[in-house]
Amino acid sequence: MDSGEIKSRYVILHLEVLHGSDRYEINLHMEREPLVYDLQEELEKKARVTVANQKLNFRGQRLHQSPDKPLSAFGLFNGNRIMLIGEKEAIAPQYCHNLLADLYAKVQRCGQDLNTFNQVANNVNVDSSECDALKKKNQTLERIKDLIDISNNVSSAIANYGAQYQHRKQ
Fold first, then answer.
1. Which end of the chain, N or C, is less surrounded by CB atoms within 10 Å?
2. Residue 170 pLDDT more than 60?
3. How far apart are the first and last CA of the chain?
4. pLDDT in tens, 26-72
5. How far is CA 147 from the centre of its chain?
6. Do 11 and 75 sit in the same domain of this protein?
7. What's the CATH code of the domain at 74?
8. Residues 63 and 119 in one domain
9. How many CB atoms sit inside 10 A of residue 86's CB?
10. InterPro entries attached here (predicted)?
11. What is the tally of structural domains in the chain?
């Protein structure tokens, strides 16, 4: 199969979608001609506006009213700009809580790793006559200590926020 055959099998469409002050680059790579609905699904993922709430305008045409029509039927081609109107979907509080819980677990693991690095760095034997090596060891220990402090502060902030969230929920 040569490149001409590949090009004829795939339709590649690059569009710019404006939504208020936000701008989204949409790339549709398909084995068939992309439909309005394909664009809407991609926008639902990127712009967080549900398909049902989307109003898509291109040169006075209301694309959202014809989801089963190919985009080419509206005269769309690479580089065109489309206007999206619609409210972003709010992020569910439980979803945010789950993200925070995951972040907290990762910060805890990071803190544990930093403590391990600290122990290893402390156990490195450097001859006192090797001034540069001793200086590097001390700088490394200071940097690790700073990162441990940051890790502890982040963990504490996440835990406090989680406690406040639970308190508000009750």
1. C
2. no
3. 63
4. 999 989 999 999 999 999 989 989 999 999 999 999 999 999 999 99
5. 24
6. yes
7. 3.10.20.90
8. no
9. 20
10. Ubiquitin-like_dom (IPR000626), Ubiquitin-like_domsf (IPR029071)
11. 2
β-bridge mates for residue 17, sequence order: 24, 82
Q: What is the pLDDT of residue 6?
A: 46
If asked whether residues 98 and 79 sit together in one domain, one would say: no
Concatenated DSSP letters for 28-77?
EEESSPPBHHHHHHHHHHHH---GGG-EEEETTEEGGG-TTSBGGGGT--
Binning pLDDT at 50, 70 and 90, where does residue 2 land? low
Helices 93-122 and 131-169: crossing angle in degrees, nearest 10, is 160
pTM: 0.53
Domain of 131 in residue numbering reads as: 93-169
CB 17 within 8 A of CB 80: no
Beta pairing partners, 140: none
SS3 sequence of 92-150:
CHHHHHHHHHHHHHHHHHHHHHHHHHHHHHHCCCCCCCCHHHHHHHHHHHHHHHHHHHH
Q: What is the 8-class DSSP label of residue 80?
A: -
Strands 81-85 and 11-19, by their bridges, are parallel
